[in-house]
């Protein structure tokens, strides 16, 4: 057994974190880690307690959290550890609530978070390379570790806190194997050791010597377990990220494909494989406020939505979902049979005979069994299991479901349990040993108890019960009514209570702490009530909810494009070199034309969507970025071209971290854009077949594909989209360092590989259809010059800040009214012309009864794309292309009077924008009197 001895301060007992191949051991006791992934930086501090309590009430014994470097050092040398960014206070709150903590401080965290957690200013440093043993990068990392390390060190288990594990980096194995990553990973590992981290170090999806490696996945538990067992046979096997849902990005469908039923099944697969820890990523997702939503691989425009709800057990507003109750049911079962699970081995199910269509696997310990039975039928069926001792049990399983069956499991005190219902409680409750079993509404189950002494009834006799001749075994044929049933028994003079619940009543049953259970409540919360004490609040009924605040009297101010001069620049600059981390930049230039007509403008370096204006009128919205081509109408003479670009988030995962944002090269007129997805030929060595990458293609293996294209006078050529490696042009390999085919997007400069006339491009077949593969060609001589730039402020736009503001004098009031009337009169015209604009209004905080716990959200019906501020706080980006429809308005950020500001890229009218309560806001709460 590996061990780490942690000394507490004088007068406190010594605490240890040990481990062996079976599990982690804390203070001498084996533990099954049931961890909720919750990020403190994705919600206001006022919401921390309720979110953590909800995790604890679901049976979670630990919290997994990233630390976001860019939250704590938003500008170089300017540290922020107060308010919502007080990560130390978050760790202290976990300790107060009795929750262990798994700390994941990075420096890289991925997390669909801007730049993977790195501060934006890092990319300004000369010669820096990220996630490498690069001197410039590691120097900055050391400074970060110095600051964050003392917060973690002082809250380790042995120092009086509850930090039990610290992660080294994050998912490095997706970029390089352990050998290639060793210099970098070892440096980080040693950095934590030097800074006094004594609890075990862990990694995920890639490892380093001296750290326990975990696995990140949604499915395939068996293969992940086997891989870890081969790599680290003497270490515990934990799921460092069990993906409870998935993130969403603009223009995609809602990420609800991981249903609650599948979620529960995958958890049983993890138990079945033999893991001794599950971290639910995410348990509560939260919100990507401000500009912190990231960008990931898969296409050029995979930008995260503002919500990070993640279809998680707790939704973005902290409300329980069906997945929450699935997690709670599994956690209760694990807790009830934890000693068995942590000592068990895989079951050889050959000795168990089952009805056709039922797959039987599970865990064993001596003669004890946990059978996890999976149905392959298309409808619910009653199957039968014949056990090793010859008994045959009925078990009801739904299609595709995995159901637990306990066979002669020692649940303590010499009592053995066999049950086709799931076990939720195995502990004294109110001084009486209590077992709680449950099954879906309307199902039957078989429950059998065997003891060393006779088992006798102490209450009413159940309808269907039978005793063995010696009285030491009692069997129950149970129906799971909606109304709970209680069976009172005694064993050798000791009381035993068996509570039988339906699935819906199990969801209304809560474990408040050791030996404290609460029944018949839709929702439960704990609120502080003095030194170490908590008051229980319960929700049992719905109330009539008052109307949410109305959003009236909007004022609008157009972004007057023709009046913005900006700062002259030789060529467009990206956000970082311009010195602006987030928000908007407006790029402007003049294009002279001898005659009226259309041109194809090539933008070789554009990393964010751009709204294009020609002579003050919107001409296009560029969504597919990296490099872009856009058809534009130009008049004879001078034309003013403007691009309004919003930083939509930096890559949160890629070998290309730190990409410049916005537009960072000039444009070129009269270019050519050629869609390359059609016209490929596949050569499998025997035949030649046409392959269309924009259609579903029947292609076996990864044959070589080839295609011709021609150039006529263009000396520059870019290939952009879902390229595949190895890539060849005219027989020469084009190097693509770090690129993997599943990234599905890259901009490749082919200028040094192409020739005038016919060119041949070759690459292996990867998949079809693919979203984009274009050749952009142009002449260097056709560049656009005379650029200027201007930053469009997001935090408090000057135009919006004065809208609707209280005037100090009569003259100012009259001027404000006149200004407002003029703007209101021109609002519809501005919107029709597609002119960007700010809109502002004020509303009063809602006045609601104390018995309600409302959640407020903003629905932006009719708007286009832009940003939201509440009382000067940046709530994030919006884009009305789905899947996000509603935007969180944190109740703790409301004031008596509140100012809402929208910046809309098309200046659309906010007349249909409104505030809403979530459905659970109508739930009424009351103190629970025990």
UniProtKB/TrEMBL annotation:
Q: Where is the Beta-galactosidase 1-like first all-beta domain?
A: 572-671
Domain annotation Glycoside hydrolase 35 catalytic: ranges: 23-331
Q: Name one Pfam family in it.
A: BetaGal_gal-bd
Q: What is its EC number?
A: 3.2.1.23
Q: Which UniProt keywords apply?
A: Glycosidase, Hydrolase
What is a GO molecular function of this protein? beta-galactosidase activity
Cite the Beta-galactosidase galactose-binding domain residue spans from the record: 836-896
Biological process, per Gene Ontology: carbohydrate metabolic process
> Which family would the database say this protein is a member of?
Belongs to the glycosyl hydrolase 35 family.
Name of the protein: Beta-galactosidase
| Organism of origin | Paenibacillus pasadenensis
